[in-house]
Amino acid sequence: MSRPPAVVLKYYCYQATLSLGFISPIFTLFLLYRNLDYTQIALLSTLYASLTVVSEVPTGYIGDRIGRRDSLIVSTVCMTASILGFVVARSFLALAVLYVLWTFALVFRSGSDDAWLYETLQTELDTDRFAHVGGRGTAVNQGVTVVAALIGGVLYELDPTLPFLVSGLLNGAGVFVLFTLPRNPEYSDPDRDVLSPIDAIRFVRNHLSASPLRSFVAYVALFFALTAAVESYVHPIATEMLGIPVEWIGPLYAGFSLLSAGVSYHAGTVEDAFGVRATTTVVPLIFAVSLVIPVFAPLFALPMFFVRTGSRTLLRPLVNQYINDHSASIGRATVLSAASMVYALVKLPFTIAWPYRRRVLAARCGCFAGWGCTRRTHCTRRIHGGFCVGFLHAFVECVFTRKRTELGFRLETRRVTTDEFEANRLEDGD
Asked: 76-105 in b/e burial notation, b at 16+ Cβ within 10 A?
């Protein structure tokens, strides 16, 4: 196997600095330590989700204007400031400001990171290697997350602010790594073509409203929203239905991260073997089937969560590869950010209203999204897959509710848990 180019190795180093493993297992505990209640935590989560929807496209456009690498630098500075801010912030208002910074960090990265990597590979290697390099970058990130998560719990016992201090230093190192990465070649030309804000809106509309991205983005938005919704069940089902001790939840999430690392490392291999279309059709159907099995055999709920993690991790680089392949260079980050906005918009009802009417919302959103995927598209496989995933999710929601009554267990209805925090922020972008 040939050695990757130096720029790819630097990209892997950058991905390592993005890990939030030190703070993700203890984040909600820390907010409670700062005397927030669950209502306030839910408000912060809603602030993040809403701000993400409205700022995705503008920050993607800025990334296309100032340069994708420079956008990533802005993102990393915002993230570092936000994480370190948790060391000193104590009031709800101060924490809300940090959430805004956190959101800006993620939306400035969203779109720009994949656009930068795609354009760089076009110059340095081959764009067909995008899923390989992107997937292995995610594998590096998840590997660091596993180790950091184990250390983060120990640091929290010593001092609740220590995980944030160490995580801030790790993320801050990403700024120095980014300065060693090259800018995309077109930004060295002062006379290059640029899109005005109005042109950028038309550009996004023309790309996302036309085949093949129209049906594809709608389909994967549904899939990502449903996998995020299922994430909300991990903690209550693991502890109350399966009887897993609370102290084993950390190692359970470490197992999820290890699985993500392995799956993402081989994402390019899967693409080479089966192709993007076949993979994005079959994987969601496998996930849908895994949702049904625990209804009849509850012990299979745990493997279902692993299927959920693996399927989401596998599809992320393949989806970004497909969108990149069907986007023009001049507005690439804007189109990718617009797709991320669609994902966030579909996920938003689950984030805001899940604690109150999760069963009804799942049925409505799932069936509506499945119906939306069937309109005006010639891709029969994605039609069938989108409808099945939406329908099966609604079906499982209803049956799980009846099943838990029969078994005599009660699922927790806390508005925000550690796993919800991770789902909102890391799937991410990425």
From this structure: bbbbbbbbbbbeebeebeebeebbbbbbbb
- The encoded tokens of residue 394 equal 């609604």
Map 37-105 to HEC letters.
Answer: CHHHHHHHHHHHHHHHHHHHHHHHHHHHHHCHHHHHHHHHHHHHHHHHHHHHCCCHHHHHHHHHHHHHH
pLDDT for residue 371: 39
Residue-wise pLDDT for 327-355, tens only, equals 888 888 999 999 988 988 888 776 555 54
Q: Are 183 and 70 in contact (CB under 8 A)?
A: yes
Distances (CA, A) of 376 to 204, 273, 369: 19, 29, 13
C-alpha 56/C-alpha 430 separation (Å) is 14
Distance CA 367, CA 390 (A): 5
Instruction: Answer whether 267's CB lies under 8 Å from 134's CB.
Output: yes
Cis previous bond, 284, omega within 30: no
Q: What is the DSSP letter of 240?
A: I
- Nearest Cα to Cα of residue 316 among 233, 196, 392, 428: 428
**CA 63, CA 281: separation in Å to the nearest integer?**
31
The model's pLDDT over 399-410, given as tens digits with 9 standing for 90+, comes to 444 444 334 433
Q: How far apart are CA 100 and CA 89, in angstroms?
A: 14
